[in-house]
């Protein structure tokens, strides 16, 4: 009898750590990873009780509160994750991110620093620490960064965020290039304008943002969080095993053209 094909999305036995995993997109990703068999450690800055409310109760899910902008906290997070997972995570999703919108000429410098700190520095610290541990133990590993379509197309009023995602795209490629000899892969997923989390907050509270976003998505609707989670599922799965240095744009076509009022019908 012919052997049934193995499910190429099967994550059984896999150990995944995700920063910022209690947020809107993170929760969708975590559910996908659990559904496909992985053990998952979620990191966020939320207090334990708030995280417990945000996340599903699951025997393969644990939560570790830590601020990933802090070097010592990142080491503590990796120690805790390794204990909880019974081994180093094989996949680390550097996913935490923040946004704030202001006209570029008035962008508060504190907000600039905060955005760079979380979106770039924290991702760098987590990726660096995980990579060092994989190399020390001679283990393979995989980094998955969360960038955004605005890495390539500057969305108005979030200049530091655009720049942070461009920096993260570059970091993805640097980690991929330097660490390939250690069999450490680094890729990124660049979502579009998602109907959840930070974009949904702006959609709900900023009429100008909403009008612009409605014009900007060729597919014509906000990206469902599950559609983002599907791409991350592919990225962490064996199907993506030959990918390194790849930035997978999944944005409903948003990055196909500029969205300024006078250039969009
Ligand atoms: N929502 C979108 O449209 C969209 C589009 C493209 C990319 N993204 C990216 O996806 C990621 C998640 O965004 P989201 O929409 O789910 O936002 P979100 O605000 O719902 O989630 C972000 C999470 O990161 C956590 N966080 C912030 N600082 C942290 C720190 N120092 N250490 C650990 N955790 C921290 C927050 O507490 C929050 O739970 C971000 O990197 C964001 O840039 C979002």
Automatic annotation (TrEMBL):
One Gene Ontology molecular-function label: oxidoreductase activity
Bilayer-spanning residue ranges: none
SUPFAM superfamilies registered for this protein in UniProt: NAD(P)-binding Rossmann-fold domains (SSF51735)
Gene3D superfamilies per record: NAD(P)-binding Rossmann-like Domain (3.40.50.720)
Top-rank lineage group of the source organism: Bacteria
CDD domains per record: SDR_c
Keywords, alphabetical: Oxidoreductase
Pfam families hit by this protein: adh_short_C2
PANTHER family: DEHYDROGENASES, SHORT CHAIN, ESTRADIOL 17-BETA-DEHYDROGENASE 8-RELATED
Family membership noted in the UniProt record: Belongs to the short-chain dehydrogenases/reductases (SDR) family.
The protein, known as: Glucose 1-dehydrogenase/2-deoxy-D-gluconate 3-dehydrogenase
């Amino acid at each position: 009898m012919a052997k049934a094909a193995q499910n190429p999305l099967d994550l059984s036995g896999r150990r995944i750590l995700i920063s910022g995993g209690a947020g809107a997109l993170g929760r969708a990703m975590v559910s996908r990873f659990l559904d496909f068999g992985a053990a998952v450690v979620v990191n966020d800055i939320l207090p334990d009780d708030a995280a417990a409310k945000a996340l599903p109760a699951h025997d393969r899910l644990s939560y570790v509160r830590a601020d990933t902008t802090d070097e010592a906290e990142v080491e503590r997070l990796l120690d805790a994750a390794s204990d909880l997972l019974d081994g180093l995570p094989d996949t680390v999703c550097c996913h935490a991110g923040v946004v704030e919108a202001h006209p570029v000429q008035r962008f508060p410098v504190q907000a600039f620093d905060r955005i760079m700190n979380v979106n770039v520095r924290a991702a760098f610290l987590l990726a660096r620490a995980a990579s060092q541990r994989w190399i020390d133990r001679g283990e393979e590993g995989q980094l998955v960064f969360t960038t955004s379509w605005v890495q390539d197309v500057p969305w108005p009023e979030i200049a530091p965020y655009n720049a942070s995602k461009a920096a993260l795209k570059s970091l993805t490629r640097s980690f991929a290039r330097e660490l390939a000899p250690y069999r450490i892969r680094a890729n990124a997923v660049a979502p579009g304008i998602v109907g959840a989390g930070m974009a949904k907050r702006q959609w709900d509270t900023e009429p100008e943002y909403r009008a612009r976003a409605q014009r900007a998505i060729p597919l014509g609707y906000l990206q469902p969080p599950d559609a983002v989670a599907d791409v991350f599922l592919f990225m962490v799965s064996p199907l993506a095993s030959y990918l390194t240095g790849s930035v997978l744009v999944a944005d409903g076509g948003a990055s196909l053209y500029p969205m300024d009022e006078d250039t969009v019908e």
